[in-house]
Amino acid sequence: TTGNDTAAIQDLAGNDAASFTNTVVADGYIRGATVYIDVNQNGVIDIGTDYLVGTTDANGNVLIPGGAPAGSIIATGGVNTDTGAPNTMVLKAPQGAATINPLTTLVQAVIEKAVAANPNTVVNAALIAQASTKVADSLGLTSSLGGASLLNYDPIAKGDTVVQKAAAQVATIVTLAGNAEAGTT
């Protein structure tokens, strides 16, 4: 509707959304995760600089307004609805992703590595698709995805245990690596 309609979908400031993208945060669905757009493209959350999207609902969903600034998506905190355990992993996804999980975090890492290797690299739809395909191929997930992109594929909703297992393994490896003492193997 036109005007300021309280029944419309609104951002945190109460502005009506002209359009939005529904995005789900999952390693199991993550409720209460805080989601940001990395406006300055440095790969970390900078309070006051990066765009605060909001907090995920009980099912891990958050709406990113159509007018949100450009940048990758970062989700932090929250609670895994499957296990009740706190989410300690920072989850990322490229701009425009409809799913944020450990696999999209790997996709974003591939993109960040490409940009670090060549600062003139343009992050566009082609580079994002290439990074998604590279991660899917590397993990042997291409046939499970059936042509879908990791960025728009919710393995929990699809009941896809192959992709869910891969995401869980990635999360476990990241957690173990983050907790390892210096000099350990």
What can you tell me about this protein's structure?
This protein has 185 residues and is α+β, with helices and mostly antiparallel strands. The protein is built from five helices and nine strands; from the N terminus they run E-E-E-E-E-E-E-E-E-H-H-H-H-H. The longest helix is centred in the last third of the chain and has 19 residues, at 161-179. The chain is globular and about 55 Å long. It starts with 19 loop residues before the first strand and ends in a 6-residue tail after the last helix.
List how many beta strands DSSP finds: 9
Q: Within the largest sheet, what's the order of strands? A: 4-3-6-8
Beta-strand share of residues: 15-25%
The major pleated sheet works out as: 4 strands, antiparallel
- The arrangement of helices and strands along the chain is EEEEEEEEEHHHHH
The radius of gyration is 17 Å
Shape: globular
Alpha plus pi helix count = 5
> Low-confidence stretches at least 5 residues in length (pLDDT < 50)?
none
Specify the helix fraction band. Answer: 25-40%
The span between the termini is: 58 Å
Task: Tell me, rounded to a whole number, the average pLDDT.
Answer: 84
Structure class = alpha+beta
Entry summary:
The protein has 185 residues and is α+β, with helices and mostly antiparallel strands.
List keywords for this structure.
185 residues; alpha+beta; 4-stranded antiparallel beta sheet; 3-stranded mixed beta sheet; 5 helices; 9 strands; 19% strand; globular
Q: In terms of topology, how is this protein built?
A:
Elements lengths: L19 E6 L4 E2 L2 E5 L12 E5 L5 E5 L6 E5 L2 E2 L10 E3 L5 E2 L1 H16 L7 H14 L3 H4 L9 H4 L2 H19 L6
Parallel strand pairs: 1-9
Antiparallel strand pairs: 1-5, 2-7, 3-4, 3-6, 6-8
